[in-house]
Amino acid sequence: MADELPPGTRHLPGFLDRAAQEALVEDIRAVAARAPLYAPVMPRTGRPMSVRMTNCGPLGWVTDRERGYRYQPTHPVTGAPWPPIPPRLLDLWAAVADHPAPPEACLVNFYEGSARMGLHQDRDEQALDAPVVSVSLGDACLFRIGGAARGEPTRSLRLESGDVFVLGGEGRLAFHGVDRIYPGTSTLLRNGGRVNLTLRRVTAADGQDRLTAS
Ligand code: SIN
Ligand code: FE2
Hints:
By secondary structure, the chain is an alpha+beta fold. Helix content is 13%, strand content 29%.
């Protein structure tokens, strides 16, 4: 498999220094205090995912057995609106996204020891012209990325705390997943584990909210 990343994807190793990572962890702790991490389940099967999730922003990505993958403005357990996206993350988006509109959702994924995430595309957004911007904090992981079709070859790389990864342009629909985390590889999170933040633009920039269209 070639070493190059798919066109439109970018790996920015060490984008955030330690102080910026620590500040972001505090921001995310504050988000999780208002919008607690919960255990999402897969559509149809109801199988629990191994990551725990929460969100910030006007919209949050959720999944459940009956209604499947979607964005909604409220936390599925508490029913409360998601807290706002911390300014630090809006600045990060402005620095790397090369997109005129701000993100509307920040999905917070928390991986403990054996958590992983299967190969998938991020395609529940209307705004496919906007990138998905991912930030890794805490323990390193083995990240896998392929092409826009499931059968295409994939390559694996390690994402470390402070790395930013951008899925944009031709790479916006690249399949990706997390094969494993490497426990004990970072001192950022007191109790270990990995946090991944993904910033997403959800609604199309033409102002039409097609969220509810079928
Ligand atoms: C995701 O695809 O939602 C998460 C990717 C990651 O954890 O790096
Ligand atoms: Fe994803």
